[in-house]
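Field guide to reading this record: the first block holds the primary sequence, the second block holds the structure written as C-alpha cells, and the final block holds curator observations. Each block starts with its own label. This record concerns ATP synthase subunit b, chloroplastic, catalogued under organism Piper longum.

BLOCK 1 — SEQUENCE
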Amino acid sequence: MKNVTDSFVSLGHWPCAGSFGFNTDILATNPINLSVVLGVLIFFGKGVLSDLLDNRKQRILSTIRNSEELRGAAIEQLEKARTRLRKVEIEADEFRVNGYSEIEREKSNLINAASDNLERLENYKNETIHFEQQKAINQVRQRVFQQALQGALGTLNSCLNKELHLRTISSNISILGAMKQIMD
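BLOCK 2 — STRUCTURE
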C-alpha cells in the first residue's frame, strides 16, 4: 500500500510545465470534487429531476382527483341507499300498520260472525224447543182426546140402548131442522 501512496506522492513532485498535476491532499480535493460533481448533476440533472418530480406530482394529483371522484360517487351511492332504506322502512311501517289493522278488522269480523252464528243457533234452539213443546202438547191432547172419546163411546155404548139411541138421533135432527128454518 505504501508503494501506491508513494507513487501518487512522487507524481505530485514532478516538475511540469504549467500548473497541471495531481493534488494528493485529500482534504483539499474532496470538497472541490464534490462541488464539481454537484454542479454537473444540477446543470444536467435539473431537467430530468424536474420532469420526474412533475410526473410524480401529476400522478399524485391524478390519484387525488380520482379519489375525490370515487369519494363523491360513493357518497352519492350512500345517499341513494339511505333514501331507498327510508322508503323501505316507510313501506314496512305501512305494511305493519295495515297488517295490524287488517288483523284487527278480521278479528272483529270473526267475532261478529261468531256472535251472529251463536244468536242464530240460540234462536234455532229456542224455535226447536218451542216446536217440540207444541208437538208434545198436541200429542198429549190427541191422546187425551182419543182416550176421552173412547171413554165416552164406551160409556155411551154401555148406557144407550136402541130406543135411547133413536130418540137422541131424532132430537138432533129436529134441532138441525129448527136451525135451518131460523137461517132461512
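BLOCK 3 — OBSERVATIONS
Residues 33-135 form one domain.
Confidence is low (pLDDT under 50) at residues 7-17.
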